[in-house]
Amino acid sequence: MKGIILAGGNGKRLLPLTKRVNKHLLPVYDKPMIYYPLETLKKAGITDILVITGTDHASTIFSLLGSGKDFGVNFTFRVQDEAGGLPQAIGLAKEFIGGDKFVSINGDNMLFDDIAPFVKAFENGKEKSRVLLYETTREEAAKAGVAVLEGEKVVKVVEKPKDPPTNWVVVGVYMYTPHVFEVIKTLKPSARGELEISDIHNFYIKDGSLKASKLKKEWLDAGSFDELLRANKIVAENMHEH
User: Fold this and answer.
1) What is the pLDDT, as a whole number, of residue 70?
2) Cα–Cα distance, 13 to 224 (Å, whole number)
3) Which segments constitute the Nucleotidyl transferase domain (predicted)?
4) Which of 119, 135, 178, 225 is most buried, by the most CB atoms less than 10 A from its CB?
C-alpha cells in the first residue's frame, strides 16, 4: 500500500497566516500540521508516501520533510500547478501509484483513531474504494461532504448541503485502487470550477464498490481560524492526558 498527502490549496480562509506559509506547516500545538496525517499513514504501516503541494510554498515543504529518513518513511514530491480540486491532485499520483492500492489523506486532517484496521480491510477486500465517516454537529455537517446512510451502507454523498440529511461526514481519508485514475478522467468541474471528491464517492456508490468505516474518536480539519484554534486545544488536552 502506498500513501498520498494532499498539501496544496491556498489556505485562503487562514489569511494572513498563509500569505507566506503553507497552511499545512502552521503549528498545531507542538508540531507542524502536516506531521499529523503523516503519523496517521505511518502508524497504518504506509511508508512510501507522495506529497502533493502547490507552487507557492513547495520549497518550504521540501525543506521541512526532506527525503523522509528522519520520519522512517520515503517521500516523493509532485507539484500541482493550480488549485483544481482534490481529484485533480490525486490524478497527479498515477505514475507513483502504478498498480498498487493506496490511501490519500488531506494534509489538514487530524485523526485520533488508528486507521490500520481499515487499511488492512481495504487491502484484503474486493471494494474499489473505502471512506471513513465521522459523526459531527449539524453546523459542521453543512460545510462538508455528508453521507446518506441506509443502515451501515452509504447510498449517496451530498456536498455541503444546507439541510444535512445526517451528521455523518466523509473525512479527508480516501482509499482507492488504481481504477480511480480512470474515474478522474471522466469528471467534469463543478460550479466552483474544480473537480469534486464527492463525485468519485458517488461513482463508486453507483458501481456498488464503495465501503465505509466509522471513526470512534475525534476527527479535526484545521481549515479555518476557529478550527485551527480548536485543533490546538484538543491536541494539547490529549497530550496532557497521556
Assistant:
1) 95
2) 5
3) 2-236
4) 119
**Whether pLDDT at 242 is above 70:** no
Question: Smallest Cα–Cα separation from 183: which of 172, 198, 170, 167?
Answer: 198
pTM over 0.85: yes
The pLDDT tens digits for 53-81 are 998 888 999 999 999 999 999 999 999 98
- For residue 119, the SS3 value is helix
Q: Over the stretch 2-34, which tens digit does the pLDDT of each residue have? A: 999 999 887 889 999 998 889 999 999 999 999
Where b means 16+ CB within 10 Å and e means fewer, 96-114 reads bbeeebbbbbbbbbbbebe
38, 30 contact by CB (below 8 A): no
Length of the chain: 242
Question: CB–CB of 36/115 below 8 Å?
Answer: no
Q: How many helices (H) and strands (E) does the chain have?
A: 9, 13
Closest CA to 179 of 105, 104, 94, 52: 94
Hey, what amino acid is at 169? V
CA torsion 91-10-53-85 (nearest 10°) is -10
Given a contact cutoff of 8 angstroms between Cβ atoms, the answer to whether 76 and 201 are in contact is: no
C-alpha cell at 115: 486507521
Write down the pLDDT at residue 150. Answer: 92
Q: Are 41 and 107 within 8 A, CB to CB?
A: no
